[in-house]
Write a structure and sequence with these properties.
The chain has about 425 residues and is an alpha/beta fold. Helices cover about 60% and strands about 10% of the residues. It has 16 helices and 8 strands.
Length: about 425
Amino acid sequence: MGFFDKIKDGLKKTRDALFGRIDQLLKSFSKIDDDLFEELEELLVMGDVGMYTAEKICDELKKRVKQEGITNPQEIRRLLEEVVTEMLKGGQELDISTKPSVILVIGVNGVGKTTTIGKLAAKFTREGKRVTLAAADTFRAAAIDQLQIWAERSGADIIKQNEGSDPAAVVFDAISSAKARGSDIIIADTAGRLHNKTNLMNELAKINRIIDRELPDAAKEVLLVLDATTGQNAVNQTKQFKTAAGITGIVLTKLDGTAKGGVVLAIKEELDVPVKYIGVGEQVDDLQPFDPEDFAKALFADDEAVGQESETVIEEVAEPENTAEEEFKPATAEIWEQIDAEAEAEKQAEQEKGEEHLKQEEEAKKAAEKEKIEQKKQRAEERRNKAKAKYNWSTEPAVKSDEEDDWFKQWKEGGSS
């Protein structure tokens, strides 16, 4: 199946539910008037495009209809495709221009976050890049094991710690490993975040600080994975995460299973957050880079015409099986062994440095405790001196008993304060 066919098939439910109804609407009108635009706006809102975006689309359509002198309602279909394409353009390219580049993947549980990471890793390794995965989702049961499976499938390296470890520490280790091994891309998995939980957002901020400190000049993408089936709730999540985590783009999954694909327009237009990838199936290559023109074309596609067109394209560009695997030539084993040996040596040096650091910390701790004891003694002495000055012990009162004499002597010598 070709690239465009995947998107077209993935958007079938949205096309049938929303833009199929728009076709019926346009056919039911013999002229272009306010009633047509009012019903069109209502259909767009029902398709999870959002009120603000639906109004803007209709306003732009009215302007173009007037400019071009259009009177046939069927022409609005063409204009609508043009408007949608223009709205979605801008910022959809993934920035992986440095070595290494960092992709931090966030999102609530259940949206397909870890699977998305695995598919991205597979895509990059097929392109000949070396990928390091950071298993920083240390709280969800089996999340580390799941990412380990994806690492093995895709041929990516993986850095992990025990369940419950500090996610920021895992990201730090992944960065150190990527530097040593010469990785092209670091992809960090994070625990599922509820966007209304301040402490979890603070943890994301901590991870970002680690990345900014260790790789200040690296290209960094913060991708929010959203489930398209949630419709307008995806817009709300984007709004919250944009404020708290500074997201740079969206990965919209499960588009093939919903009629709410119009939410792409709402996210881009209302929040100015570009969609970077869309998920249109369960297979590894069903995670597709977002292309505004292809997306709009697929939304308005005629199934029979597109089917014939795609068959022709497939015949023209048909390639032998396993071509992709043959074209991908990874570095030789000797090179990787050398890189791994260098990484191991650096790891050993870091470990020795860490042991020396712990020793210094222990000595500093003992010195601090000793100083604390001395300070405590000094404060006690100061209190005794103040008491002596206050009660003028140079003229001591007569002692009435041996018991009082012992207590008074002990008190003077600092035995009790």
